[in-house]
Amino acid sequence: MDIVRNNAAGLSGIEQLRAIVAADTPPPINATLGFALVELEEGRVVFEGHPGRSVYNPIGSVHGGYAATLLDSACGCAVHSRLSPEQGYTTLELKVAYHRPLTEESGPVRAEGRIVSMGRRTAFAEGRLTDRHGRLCATATSTLLVFPVERPPAAS
Q: pTM of the full predicted structure?
């Protein structure tokens, strides 16, 4: 994860994501919620998760925050994959629509994120979350702020 946060090597967004996958050093939230980046190309990513009882709500299904987190990650990383070494991003808005409930029998679930459009300062992405049978469970649209980041000076 330090690869993304510090980016002293001057890697592009897709290079950062590939380095994380290659080093098998996902962010801690991936372990907490049981999901992983399984497909990666410029402008498109797929996360796969296995919702279990640890993410259930009191009414007996997977909490909506689980789906929202996967979709936020998918939309965000789709944008991240198009960043230059001098850019960062943050989610400004995430709108999630829930189409069917998730249970532990739903998994593995797949969250696919794609860039809709990307400008100098703003990016728009969309995501789809499907269950093991390919049924649509949730969708999302996301607006993301793209901003310049300063790299630390090279060590001498």
A: 0.91
What superfamily in CATH does domain 2-148 come from? Hotdog Thioesterase (3.10.129.10)
- Max Cα separation, the chain? 58
Domain ranges of the chain: 2-148
CA angle 53, 59, 130 (to 5 degrees): 60
Q: Each residue of 71-84: pLDDT tens digit?
A: 999 999 999 999 99
CA 96 to chain centre: 14
Find the distance separating the first CA and the last CA of the chain, reported in whole Å: 24
Reported as a single tens digit per residue, the pLDDT across 119-136 is 999 999 999 999 999 999
Looking up tokens 């590939």, which residue turns up?
A: 18
Helices (H), the chain: 2-6, 13-23, 28-33, 64-80
